[in-house]
Write a structure and sequence with these properties.
single chain, alpha/beta, Rossmann fold, 2 domains, six-stranded mixed sheet, 8 helices
Length: about 260
């Protein structure tokens, strides 16, 4: 399957007042179209930095990176991806519907098209009927679903998600994991997902990218053998536990190198 994101020998060094910080080192990775790819590793290993490079929010200092055959800057201008941050980032003075409409307004969609797209993505994230509510009237999990809806509104082929459920309790997180899998199956999008949770990475992903402590390197890429249809209790199966063990070993080996 064709790769929609390709990184070759990617490096990124930040210049700081205390000297250079080598955030990424020799990162090479192909992400196939339609894949669900999770990035997992210790804090500071470059997971989010790599995602931000894809989104042209950071710029590599070495190597090559393409998104849909374009540079990340070109892909950003072509609106090739939606981005979901760790915090929902909803404007409190805008209703949920108007928050979702914001990128559509910026892109010049007509009012009629905005309305149609808002209704469609609210259905996708199970928030139909909440269009006129304000963010403070929704739970944390619902706010994050609204943030996902905003990223889906202009129908980009790629969805980048930077640890979107990290601040939520386990019960809500499980529910949203199920919903993200349902959404991925319904849309066929390519998803890049940053997480610190081994069970979350294994449950969600077709591919799990294990990264080392700084400078961030890829220590393992695991292609999951799990079926596409994944009820939560799949986490109790030997196959799931075996993949989780390999992820844990990859994390451990990153510290030992």
């Amino acid at each position: 399957m064709a790769a929609v994101i390709q990184a070759q020998n990617l490096d990124l060094t930040f210049q700081t007042g205390d000297g250079p910080v080598h955030a990424l080192k020799d990162v090479s990775l192909d992400i196939p179209k339609g894949a669900f790819v999770s990035f997992i590793g210790p804090s500071g290993c470059g997971k989010t930095t790599f995602l931000r490079c894809i989104a042209a929010l950071e710029h590599p200092t070495g190597g090559n990176l393409t998104v849909n055959g374009m540079t990340p800057d070109e892909a950003r201008r072509a609106r090739a991806y939606g981005y979901v941050f760790q915090a929902a980032g909803l404007y409190p003075w805008r209703t949920i519907g108007r928050n979702i409409a914001l990128p559509l307004e910026i892109m010049g969609f007509s009012r009629a098209e905005q309305k149609e797209r808002i209704g469609r993505v609210l259905d996708l994230v199970d928030l139909a009927g909440f269009e006129k509510k304000f963010p403070w009237q929704l739970s944390g999990g619902m706010q994050q679903r609204a943030s996902i809806a905003r990223a889906l509104a202009f129908d980009a082929d790629i969805l980048l998600m930077d640890e979107p459920f990290g601040a939520l309790d386990e019960i809500v997180r499980d529910r949203l994991n199920e919903e993200v899998l349902r959404l991925w199956a319904a849309t066929g999008k390519t998803i890049g997902f940053v997480t610190h949770s081994i069970p979350e990475a294994v449950y969600l992903s077709t591919h799990i990218v294990v990264m080392s402590p700084r400078p961030g390197r890829i220590t393992d890429v695991i292609e999951s053998p799990l079926p596409t249809d994944r009820p939560l209790d799949i986490r109790d199966t030997p196959e799931f536990i075996e993949i989780a063990h390999r992820v844990r070993e990859g994390l451990r080996s990153g510290y030992e190198e």
